[in-house]
Amino acid sequence: MAAVKFLLQEFPWHERYRVSDPERVLTPALALYPDVIASNIRCTLDLLGGHAVRWRAHIKTAKLNYTLRMLIDRGVRYFKCATSLELLQACQTGATDVLVAYPLMGANAHRVREIKNQCPRVGISVLAENEAQVRQWRGADIGVFLDINPGMNRTGIEQSSRRRVIELAQAVTQSGLKFCGLHYYDGQFGAVAEPERTKAAHAGYDQLLGLVRDLEAGGVHVPEVVTAGTPTLPCSLAYPGFENASFLHRLSPGTVVYQDATSLAQLPAQCGYAPAALVMTRVVSSPHHGIITCDAGHKAVSADAGVPTCVVVGHGELAPLSPSEEHLPLAVTEGAKSPRVGEILYLLPRHVCPTVNNFDAALIVRNGRVESVEGVSARGHEGPLLDHVAVGAATVESIAGRIEK
Fold it and tell me: 25 and 46 share a domain?
């Protein structure tokens, strides 16, 4: 399967994105649009037939308690996260159940135990792919999902290792722990075009159902199966084997809440999604004929997905070039009018998740007005020492409090 570079070439301007008093804004700045976030949440719930219980939303994208509350207010109670800080924020914001979808060992596992003790009413589960990871949870009121590797080769048990999966699931129950089900993230298909993406994803789901049958035959009931980030969301929804299954099938897209230039190119336009997070930037230089520079380098708009890092909204004549830490040069199409130095531009990130993580705070923009400034409460990590975590958490809360004031 040949890889495809999914990225919008341009995105049209819409007045809802304009901030009416940009002279107050220190750039680069992260702008979030709650009306669009609400619409994106509604689009996702519509795809799920209105069943919020089926969405285990990955909060690595949302990052803000402000956005988590929007999800919770609309009935989303089940979440997935990657860090202890994300877990803590979800538990404190009102989540019912959170899966830490990352292999935890040592002090990181101990910290999750602490958070569970602090938040006993929240269901917390973790991933395991070997017996050492199972043993460390003995005596804890924490559930265990087996992490299945569908070919992404990042974490998990290879799905062809059926005997190993059965033995490890049995080890979970024998350890007195709650076996929650299977976690299956097929993110490697995000670079595959349709219809090959769906065909490949469905072939993997066939094997996944085979694992479920083997586990049930081995005396292990599978309560839940979690699949699909944003790119394979339509693939999972279209798979007939998940309909009327013996387990609860949940999907775990995260990028859908804000969207970015990649996911908008991956998902069918009829899904109805729109960008809800943009980076405001100023043109700060015109260093060469046909090039201008703005103040949104890779410390603002993440470059982890490659170059170009973004799309300039409403400016198809501007092509982002390779950024440095604080500078983003833009090539201007020959003959096109160049934005002047000092002008505000709005950037649609290629990858929104790490872009949000680059900012301490976000502007909440509604009808052109900055309604509030919200801390990016789950930015970064806790730590770095277990006995200093409480101090770190207090610092985060203090920063958020000062921002809100």
Answer: no
CA-nearest of 250, 236, 256 to 61 is 256
> Which CATH number is 65's domain given?
3.20.20.10
Under DSSP, the state recorded for 264 is H
Cβ contacts of 132 within 8 Å, gap of 6 or more: 105
In a domain, 337, yes or no: yes
Is residue 316 in some structural domain? yes
pLDDT level of residue 396 (50, 70, 90 thresholds): very low
Residues 6+ apart with CB under 8 A from 220: 166, 169, 170, 173, 179
Summarised one tens digit per residue, pLDDT across range 377-393 is 999 999 899 987 754 45
| Residue 399 counted as domain residue | no
Contacts of 64 (CB under 8 A, 6+ apart): 32, 356, 362, 374, 375, 376, 377, 378
**Whole-angstrom distance, CA of residue 74 vs CA of residue 349:** 26
pTM above 0.85, yes or no: yes
Check if the beta carbon of residue 37 is closer than 8 Å to that of residue 258. yes
Q: Is the pLDDT of residue 4 over 90?
A: no
**Bridge-based pairing state of the strands 344-349 and 277-288:** antiparallel
